[in-house]
Design a protein that fits this description.
21% strand; Rossmann fold; elongated; binds zinc ion; alpha/beta; 309 residues; 8-stranded mixed sheet; Oxidized Rhodanese, domain 1; 2 domains; 5-stranded parallel sheet
């Protein structure tokens, strides 16, 4: 084993790290931190997944990137930076959305460094279906959350993810909080890969305060995004159903059969079909309703697809 790991080999299992393959989904602020630490610690293979290019607005928190990298593909730049730091590390690149990743079998751990709820839920649902452990991380303003998901699922662990708006553009993001959460994700990852028991708990950091919630084992494998979506055309022959419209602005011409606008009007014995503009928010709402005991699905493509607009 290389001398370079002399300061950590008493704490971490270098053989295990040297046999590990980690998928880092998203290479923005969290992905920068996570990939740098994992690479430095001697994780053998890292796959970086991101389709985005580097923008000036990234530089306050995506600390691996430099001014000269603006306009370049994030994962290309990150790969060069990682190899410069540890040439023993093997780096693979996926330029697509994480939606396109079907085979998870090669990964020992998946780290969620994504920045939107929809992709996050999709990623962790896929991990759950493939029986893979994942590490969730999320930052908005001066607030961050992190947890390992093995026996619990994202919907049980972070129910408020559904209602949390996640745009850094809207709410801003405090650079060091990205560093804190990314470092936490790495800390958990190295512990997990080294074979230590990692408690499943959600760590919340709000400004300078810190609180944690222990997560319980659940059996929510059914939150498979593909299974939760339904085509509008297949609904209309049913008898007992409600269309739950969660859109903010609704035209009268768009009223459908069995249209409902308030959650309190939902009938728990009926099939509930959630409708939004594009079919994204409705997925999150359907998952939330299912966790409350409803039989909910999301109408694929939303109102745009029904009316072809
Ligand atoms: Zn669950």
């Amino acid at each position: 084993m290389h001398k370079r790991y002399a300061r950590q080999e008493k704490i971490l299992d270098m053989e295990k790290l040297n046999n590990s393959h980690v998928l880092i989904a998203g290479c923005g602020g969290l992905g920068n931190i996570v990939s740098l630490y994992l690479c430095a610690a001697g994780v053998h293979t890292i796959t970086l997944a991101d389709f985005d290019k580097i923008d000036y607005t990234n530089l306050n928190r995506q600390i691996a990137f430099r001014e000269k990298d603006i306009g370049k593909q994030k994962i290309d730049i990150l790969k060069d930076i990682l190899i410069e730091r540890n040439s023993n590390c093997n780096i693979f690149l996926i330029y697509n959305d994480i939606d396109t990743i079907e085979d998870f079998s090669q990964y020992d751990l998946i780290i969620d460094c994504l920045d939107n709820s929809y992709s996050k839920i999709k990623l962790h649902s896929k991990c759950k279906q493939n029986n893979k452990t994942s590490i969730f991380g999320s930052v908005i303003r001066n607030y961050g959350q992190v947890c390992l998901l093995k026996n619990s699922c994202i919907n049980c662990a972070i129910p408020d993810l559904i209602t949390t708006s996640d745009s850094c553009e809207l709410f801003g993001v405090y650079g060091p909080m990205v560093g804190i959460i990314g470092s936490y994700q790495c800390y958990i990852a190295l512990k997990y890969l080294s074979g230590y028991d990692v408690e499943e708990k959600l760590i919340n950091i709000s400004d300078l305060d810190f609180y944690e919630i222990l997560l319980e084992k659940c059996n929510h494998v059914e939150n498979n995004i593909e299974e939760i979506e339904i085509e509008y055309e297949t609904i209309i022959n049913e008898l007992n159903y409600q269309i739950f419209d969660i859109r903010e602005y609704i035209n009268e011409e768009e009223y459908l059969m069995n249209h409902v606008f308030n959650e309190k009007d939902l009938i728990s014995s009926y099939n509930i079909y959630v409708l939004c503009d594009t079919g994204q928010e409705s997925i999150l709402k359907a998952i939330e309703l299912n966790s409350k005991g409803y039989k909910a699905k999301s109408i694929k493509g939303g109102i745009k697809r029904i009316f072809n607009v």
